[in-house]
Automatic annotation (TrEMBL):
Name the UniProt record assigns to this protein: Zinc metalloprotease
CDD domains, A to Z: S2P-M50_SpoIVFB_CBS
Transmembrane stretches, start-end: 21-45, 65-83, 126-144, 156-176, 209-234
Species: Desulfomonile tiedjei
Names of required cofactors: Zn(2+)
Keyword Metal-binding: yes
Catalytic residue positions: 85
Keywords, comma-separated and alphabetical: CBS domain, Cell membrane, Hydrolase, Membrane, Metal-binding, Metalloprotease, Protease, Repeat, Transmembrane, Transmembrane helix, Zinc
Domain CBS: from-to ranges: 265-321, 328-387
Topology in the lipid bilayer: Multi-pass membrane protein
Amino acid sequence: MASDTGTQTVDRSTRRTTQGAFRLLDVFGITITLDYSWLIIFLLVLLSLSGGYFPFHFPGHTLTVYWLTGLIATVLFFASILVHELSHALIARRSGIDIKEITLFIFGGMAKISKNASDPLTELKIAVAGPLSSFVLAIIFWAVKNALTPGMVQAVFDYLAWINVALAIFNLVPGYPLDGGRILRALVWWRTGSEARATKWASDIGKGFAWALIILGGIQVFSGSLIGGLWLLLIGMFLRGVAEGGYQEVLMRQALHGVKVREVMVENVVSVPPDLPLDELAQKYFLKYGYGGFPVVEDGKPIGIITLSQLGEVSDERIKTETVRQAMTSIDSDLSIDAQASLVDALQTMMQIGSGRLLVLEGDKMIGMITKTGLVRFLEIRRVLER
Ligand SMILES: [Zn+2]
């Protein structure tokens, strides 16, 4: 069964919108994307309904009827997950937290929110919205079912009613990153005033639940239920990772709180001109300085960033003929940050766009660069000095 993994701030394991995902449509200004991994769960659900459930319970129909009925049920099931995620997103937006994208992927749905809630009540409202919408959907599907005469069509709505109840209950397990974990986190945060402690609780229970799924999955695999077991194993591993990451992110955010980008940035950044040939870039910059990336500056203004991994993707012939301009990532406001911004913002921007470095701007002039490695080192130094 597919799960929903709640609203999540985009972490390093999630890629930018366009890679590995297919843009489906925009609803209320929110882009709905389908990750390619989603196709696997879509086909599995479709297969189990059209090839198993319907033929078993309603024999005597043609294949076309089974596949069509299965397809309708499957599409409505994933539409239900979308409604669940949209509910999180719309409540978040009402609280001033922007959500630009909802992704359906192999483990269900995920609303990518731009930042975490800054107070427990907001967190609570956002978290509750999802399971609540699933329960409401279940009631609607149940009512439709009751209005229909017994048969395969009625069975579709019966299935949808129960799958939505299951979705709501699974998500109410009080372990982060599930909605129940977020609800618990909000309540503990509200009672104790400590976001870090609340997150530790929710994340520990989340990890415990994840391990339970992993163990259960392992037992199932060994007792012969391969696909179902593997499925639990994978969901468990995924949830464990997010639960761990969520706690670390909160700790990091607290440590970074109140520190400005200007205080941690690298000044005197070595920049490269856009018309530099790539082979010279390799020899005179990457090999010489040993950095992972350089800003590209033209007439004193930053116009892009070129990284070692970008250079690594360029073929040998292109390295001989092309220039930095052809291989760099052009700058948009995403790749830069204001010198007065806080380190929390810097970290959030980096995670959102999946970049390890940002140019630091004062007006439109580049005055430095801030890297994720630099942030981590800053945290380490601070930790050592504080002890
Ligand atoms: Zn949810």
